[in-house]
Amino acid sequence: MSRDLERVKNLLKAHGKPPREVYFDLENSGWVPDEVLKAMLPYFNVKGYGHPSITNKPGWEALEALLEAQEYIASSIGANSSEIVFTHSGTEANNLAIIGASLANKTRGRKIVVSSIEHYSVMLPANELAEHGFRTIQIPVDKDGRIDTDVLSSLIDKETVLVSIQMVNHEIGTIQPLREAVEIIRDKNPNTVIHTDAIDAYTRIPINVEKIDVDLLSISSHKILGPKGAAALFVREGTKIKKIVYGALSTQKLWPGVENIPAIVGFHEAARIAIEGMNKYMSYVTTLRDSLINGILGSIDGAILNGPRGRDRVPDNVNISFLYVEGEALTVELSLRGIYVSSGSACTSRVLEPSHVLLAIGRKYEEAHGSILFKITRYHSFADIDYVLQQLPVAVERLRRLSPLISKKNTDN
Amino acid sequence: MEIIDLRRQPKGCTSHPLIRLKRFLENNDAEVMVITDPEIIPIKTIEIIARKYERMIETIDEINNTVTILITRRCQGIEQGS
Amino acid sequence: MSTRIPLPYSSKVLDLFRNPKNAGRMKDATISATAGSPACGDVITLYLKINDEKEVIEKASFESYGCAANIAAASIMTEMIKGKTIHEAWNISWKMISDELGGLPPIKYHCSILAVGALKRAIRAYYKKKGTMPDWLSEKLTKEELQAIEEEKLIEKLYGRFKIEE
């Protein structure tokens, strides 16, 4: 057995199963609700388990499922079916958008503009394009994570080939002034391709590409309580874009590789449930969110909310920095108590950089290291929030008692 | 004096020179020198950012595609003669 | 979030994290030292009670700001040095600490390096205070000490701020 495997087995044994478990780490992945699982199961071994491009019955059944998903997802964002490309992950969709559109349009310019708080799957491909002669510029954001539209405007010129600005920030929940940004960009350069990473926006806020003139838009299944393994890129008709993965063409001209039909079916079902109930679910989730935020800020000293309050914040995001404790230690402590979250602290050796999003909004390094992210779903309850509010102060207190920063603070006073 | 070269293309995701500039201006009242290729990051962009932190800019040098700009200390709303 | 690297901690790390031995400030410490910086997300403060005559570490305790591996490394180190002579403690390497913890994942080696850095710093500070210099203690800084300093300096350069003073 490999060392890592042995370690993780022993680790799980030592961790054990806490008496109560509540999962909030939807930013990174999540469970699949029974209703969605039920829709997916037949496609593993009852029907539609063939290849959607092959001329036999299970193949045509697979194709049917794919086309149904494509149609629903397209309509849910105001697009046409033919404008939806399935990939296997949001990272793939973002890579296709950034690299595919930049390379296809490179005669139009070499400047790529992105916000400074994009997800790595947008930033890194943009940076990689430096090898092809592109330059990437990041737009600063304010303390709430909103992009500076004056700076954006000053950066758009005839050389700007692509702009990518996320609809909702994945770490701090900021809802970007995307419509305003799109208008500014179109005004200054009608040829610039506009991409938005809507992965954290889809099913939380309404999206309509007829109303917001983006050319490319990414969404992903496992962020909306669907299964891992399916995501989509909206590509507006007429947008020049190159494929970046090569293989036998199947149904998706821009992304070969056999489509994960069960996951696509799950994506469809997850989207349908969430979109149909969006208003009532989001109104409920917002109440849970605010009660968690207020509860934490009211009961723990040295706790700072990251990102805006109220309507500028997406309904399901809670991100709080706890001073004098380190985030990774806190995630382990909370995990032992059955509360599953993630942190923006730097988990890499020798330093330094904690979450680039938190640094971009002006958090000091030590504040960024102590951050914890919760995502709330329609399946969470007030009892879950109460459980967190009961456990979190104890968890933070235990780690603070171990911390030299607290005793220094106390001797300074 | 701090010098920030906006022409650098960082490999990582953080510390993009424009973001470093913003952080510097947020945390310091001192002057800072900025070097830019105006075709990539226009002088106008630097002026907009500087003004948000109550500072003015002065173009020190312009050779080919390299412009050196001084961002002044915080002006605190007082009009400074050029 | 920041780069997601899988961290299969050994169960030993988890056990120490849950029940850290020798945690907390020592009021009657002979000497204490701190290594690391909050800006790096890693600080260890070490407290030692030393028997001056015998040059033995009677008691050791720690405070820690950092991940689970950081807390575990600091804790296990205090266990390893208790009852040892200062010279013996000086010879404890970061690898020994990592091994005691069941082997840290490579990206967490810096936690045990920092722990040793704090220990060596404390030992030097002790002799400086005492005014003597044992023959086994060289003026030259060791790798661990240099790394701690490097981390502290690097953050200062990038950020120019917070530094813990003794």
Account of the 3D structure:
The complex is a heterotrimer of chains A (413), B (82) and C (166). Chain A folds into two domains: 7-24 and 278-404, Aspartate Aminotransferase, domain 1 (Alpha-Beta Complex); 35-275, 3-Layer(aba) Sandwich (Aspartate Aminotransferase, domain 2). In chain A, 42% of the residues lie in helices and 13% in strands. Chain A has 15 helices and 13 strands. In chain A, α6 (120-128) links the parallel β3 and β4 (135-139). Chain A is globular, with a radius of gyration of 22 Å. Chain A starts with a helix and ends with a helix. Chain B is of the alpha+beta class. Chain B has a domain at 9-31 and 41-71. In chain B, 26% of the residues lie in helices and 27% in strands. Chain B has helices spanning 17-27, 43-52; strands spanning 2-5, 32-36, 57-63, 66-71. The longest helix of chain B is centred in the N-terminal third of the chain and has 11 residues, at 17-27. In chain B, 28% of the residues are buried. With 166 residues, chain C is an alpha+beta fold. Chain C has a single domain (11-159), classed as Sufe protein. Chain: A (Alpha-Beta Complex), CATH 3.90.1010. Chain C is built from six helices and three strands, in the order αβββααααα. In chain C, strands 1-2-3 form a three-stranded antiparallel beta sheet. In chain C, a hairpin with a 4-residue loop joins β2 (42-51) and β3. The longest helix of chain C is centred in the C-terminal third of the chain and has 22 residues, at 109-130. The model of chain C is unreliable at 160-166 (pLDDT under 50). The chains are: A alpha/beta (413), B alpha+beta (82), C alpha+beta (166). Chains in contact: A-B, A-C. Chains A and C meet through α1, α11, β12, α13 and α15 of A and α1, β2, β3, α2 and α6 of C.
